[in-house]
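Input sequence (298 aa), recorded before submission:
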Amino acid sequence: MIKEGDLVFIWNPKKGDSFLIKVQPGQSQGTHFGQIKHSEIMEHDYGEGIRTPKGQVYYLLRPTLGEYTRRLKRQTQIVFPKESGFILEHLNIYPGCTVVECGTGSGSLCCTFAHFVGDTGKVCTYDRREEFSALARKNAEKWGVAHRIEFNVRSLDEGFKERNADAVFLDVPAPWEYIDKAYEALAPGCHLGILVPTTNQISETLRALNEFNFADVQVVEIMLRYFKTEPNRIRPEDMMIGHTGYLIFGVKTLPLPEIEEPEENAAEAGERAENADAHEEAPESGEAEQKEEKEPVE
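Predicted structure, token format:
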């Protein structure tokens, strides 16, 4: 049975209306077809339907991480699910890894990282604004992953505290100014991810990545289009989320060792010097012939 504190995704097949709620006795959810009381939801299990006072059915579904992060309370622009899934794969996020993030914002991507690192992993997130960090913490608590996150209210000018992190992600206005900080925090061979909204930011960031010799640098924009699911008129949805940002990825490499020329041993050096002296003392053949011609004949 659904219980108090559970998250429930309520969906209506007729209108496509949907709501994501946290069940609290005494509360109710308004819909186009009347109120749905939370106490009535607690009498059902996930997957079941519940009827409104007007007889319309709403299904009680388990919410996905994508639905949650898209709908969470926010004061900032968020990283949308269409980007976050791509980020997870290209930063190689796995259970037990350590992820360092700057630009906590409302916590959308932070919650996503925390969901996938598991209880043995850790997300260290930074934001200079305390109100954003506080909101992100509440959103993480609601999804049940706050215990996996270390929230830092701190300017990136001071750098990251972490070293040898498995992944670093920057969502800041001028990421090129902090590539050095990301380089310090990241383990060699691991991936840095960056989100920027404009193309001129890409140019500045690429210059900085080249300066620190990041390898396998990639720039990506992701476009996602949903389709209507009516069998007799399948076509794209009238509305879609267009441009949200550009993703930049690179891999930390270590400086190459300086190439040292091999030292000659004493015997080789002496032989080289003798050959050079002999070459200087030996007259050229033309000079020898001229001297012989000038000698008087008796």
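Checked by second reader. The radius of gyration is 33 Å.
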